[in-house]
Amino acid sequence: MKSQANLTFVNPPELGAPKGFSHAVVGTGSIVFLAGQTALDASGRIRGENVVAQFEQALANLLTALAAAGGKPSDLASLTIYIVDMAEYQANSRAIGAVWKRLVGNQYPAMAGIGIARLWDAEALVEVQGYAVLPT
Question: Is the residue at 1 inside a domain?
């Protein structure tokens, strides 16, 4: 188990070693529910022509909402990624991982990637939604 002030990351040896996520996260503090974010810019337009660029914008949007609620990237406890083209996402996983590390760091919350037919905005390729636990 790895811990910080408000989160403990649980990765039991009975489960496969996680890569890019944690199996469970225990939090102590105030919970922040973060709405799904796509690559919309402030004008309401989708930014980015590919999944990597859109993931970066969507994650930056989620982190902006988290900061406005008083949190920081290390407070993320859970993240769900909705993916329109799973094959493209997987083919770009290293570049997506590099975006994650640049914006969030080397800490990984409990995560799920879900393949879907489309998102609300037809141009959107990815959407991220999460939960954070702020220290009390």
Answer: no
